[in-house]
Amino acid sequence: MVALINVSNRLPVTIANTIKPSSGGLVSALEGYRKTHDFMWVGWSGGPVDSPRRQRELAEELKSRFGYHPLFISQQDIEAYYTGFSNSSLWPLLHYLPSYSRFDHNWFEAYKKVNFVFAENIAELAEKDALVWVHDYHLMLLPRLLHELRPDLRIGYFLHTPFPSYEIFRCHPNRQELLEGLLGADLIGFHTSGYLRHFRSTVLRLLGRESRINTIAGKGHDVTIGVYPISIPTDKFLQKMTSAAYSRHLEEYRRAYAGKKVVIGVERLDYTKGVPRRLEAIEAFLKRTGRKDVVFIFINVPSRESVPAYQALRREIEHKVSRINGNFASIGNIPVHFIHQSVNFSRLCALYTLADVAMVTPLVDGMNLVAKEYLICKPDGDGVLILSEFAGAAQELPQASIVNPYDTAQMARALENALNRTPEERQKRLAPMRRRILRYNAQRWAGDFIADLAGVDKSVEKGAGA
Ligand code: G6P
Predict the structure, then answer these.
(1) How far is 232 from 27, CA to CA, in rounded Å?
(2) Which of 25, 55, 227, 251 maximizes the CB count within 10 A of its CB?
(3) Quick one: which atom of ligand 1 is closest to the CA of 138?
(4) How far is the CA of 317 from the centre of ligand 1 (A)?
(5) What is the percent of the chain where pLDDT is above 90?
(6) 136 C-alpha to center of ligand 1: Å?
(7) Which of 94, 101, 42, 104 is nearest to 73 (CA)?
(8) CA-CA distance, 451 to 186, in Å (whole number)?
(9) What ipTM was estimated for this complex?
(10) For residue 262, what pLDDT is reported?
(11) Annotated active-site positions, please?
(12) GO terms for molecular function, please (predicted)?
């Protein structure tokens, strides 16, 4: 039995008066594995917990109930490491938006400090030769820090965002340290071959390191790079769709939206998701067609509200939604239903099943799981997915109605076409995409990555100081 330590910025729990486990895709992807293996998850507790006594109590409860090891980060460090460096500096740059990216030297100091705290904790917890799987852009320095402390560990790193082209990544003042940090890993995974290619060329151009097929020669050890497109826990969705709650909600929504076509959009309220441009496309569609039988349901889950760019985006969306509704609503008919809250899982599945069309039009997105969730909730194959060509998911789902999210006129036309398609056309295009998702689900994604990490040959280690 090999120990696996999974590491992400946040633990999948919400800590308030009680501890509430959250059910993200990563949790489900690893569920099978944790039942059969020695497993631990290391991550930030998700909010400031100041009292050392409370920290001890929480740590004990998280360990005994879930096998989680929480790290407690001070409010000051959260602001600099999470709000600052991770979400105001790296996130926009990785999503091709350098004009949103800010830099502050103190943020990087906090980022280094927190990455080091992760490294120290894992180095202490990991048994010999354990596998460590690090996730996402908050922890780019961790692979190297950990490799230096514990060269016996097999360290995997998966980037959940895009990796941008060299021309974009080079804008970051800490580009070299970040790359060197990542190259401490034994295996680095990306969603698409495009991101992998960008990474390889950035490593060559910034560090002068060549790669052979999918191996980058390091100073001390080789690093394997690979493509692992993340997916969704299909069984969780299929099971939910057999529940009484799901059927009840679906019935309720069918009554509420009788005689209407329903178009859905679901995402965190994030400027990468392209919501303002999508609203412009909807405005153009309503203007051109004058249709009164279409309802747009936008579920925008609140996110990163301490970051100023997210606050400005919320104002922009609210303004656009109220303009559309002001211009096109009539008594009893409101075109855009903007829901700035999360929706529970059975309601979400029911809404996906109900929706005639899903508009998934991010300006750029590492993968985008909403596209896959919509498809799985369409067992009868009767729906249309409008998908941005800049979402990683577009690589896997070519039968979708692929659009350029910057071209609002094209999106408006795609919407019109989607609503006019025959049931046969809808089914013909949706079925192969749904089959693909059923075949390659979240469990397979995690299984493939872990198997490749376990297979890393540590005997080629060229000595310390890699
Ligand atoms: C993206 C990131 C994840 C992150 C999630 C929620 O999907 O790739 O790493 O967990 O957003 O963001 P938050 O800032 O709320 O953790």
Answers:
(1) 11
(2) 25
(3) 9
(4) 21
(5) 90
(6) 9
(7) 42
(8) 13
(9) 0.98
(10) 98
(11) 160, 365
(12) alpha,alpha-trehalose-phosphate synthase (UDP-forming) activity; trehalose-phosphatase activity
